[in-house]
Amino acid sequence: MPPRPIKTPTLDSLLPPILALLPNAYSAHQKCLTTTARLVHSNHHQLAVEILFATSKELLKINEGSSGAELGVRMIQIMSEAEIRVDDKSRASITQLLALTPPTGPWRKKLADAAIKWSQQFGECPTGDPNLHHYIGEMYYKDRAFPLAEQHLLSSGKRDSALTLAQMMYEWCDHGRLDPGPYAVRGTLPFLAQSPPSILPALTFLTSFLSLLSSSSSAYHKNFITAIPSQTSFSLNEVHLTTSPTLNFLQLALITVQRAPAPGVSGVAARGMDGGIAKEWEGLCRRYSRNSGVNGVLAQKEVQETLMQISTGVFHIPPPRGAGGNDLLQNLMGSLFGGGGGGAGAIGAR
């Protein structure tokens, strides 16, 4: 007898028996795992991904959050094993599952974290796919999980993410009833401390945040004194003078960073005979740190360390003797994400 032909596995032949087990979530979950394990073993990774996606989606639709999300995490693990790249299709599979996963419990965060880790390996950006970061950041913002949203909106670097970040920080400072300075720092300095500085999201965030604070519905609008032309064609159109040294400093800091030496210019050439723009930056930091006071946000250790990182990385200013050896931006981010709502451990807690 001739050998029996080997059937090629297909979605139409393998998926219906799994879904037929519903609403028995446990049975469908287990059969999906065993089926896709065999597919991976026989090198049919793409089909395994499709089955996991479809089963996960159906489980999530019937409110089986843990089982559905677990299959979603397994789907992403197989995408990594198969080295599936980030594209519109693969990203959409993940965002659909995230949208269906309930916000309560740990599973949506596990799914989001797995997705970012995959996109760091198989996307274009080593910090994770900007579109995924944006989607996840907006998702957490809508849940009012502000510390989690903050991390992703900062990591995205997209203009839309910066706009959402400004709106979120405005709500986080209770529409200006709390001192908005610390929240402005959280939305501006991380962008300026990148290498090279990420100007567009910093500019977008700060202009939007100031616009919200100066609106008549803001509790802070009476703290805006006047606006003066910035006399630059590449940055803020005008500088809003306020009663907050922090808000005033951040506007001038953004303009000054945009005037920093071009990449590749040596520190000696950048400073020239008169100290150049680096001297202006040092004077700006010194003056506003003093005006902020010893208990002000600009005097906080994490902020000072980040300003020093900008000094050395952007303006080529040698660090003070004994400084260095630490990831200064990581220290700032650790402070930013250490607590929610301006609580203990977060910048602006004092």
From TrEMBL:
Domain of life per record: Eukaryota
A biological-process GO annotation: protein insertion into ER membrane
GO terms under cellular component: cytosol
Pfam families linked: GET4
InterPro entries linked to this entry: GET4, TPR-like_helical_dom_sf
The family this protein is said to belong to: Belongs to the GET4 family.
Name of the molecule in the record: Cytoplasmic protein
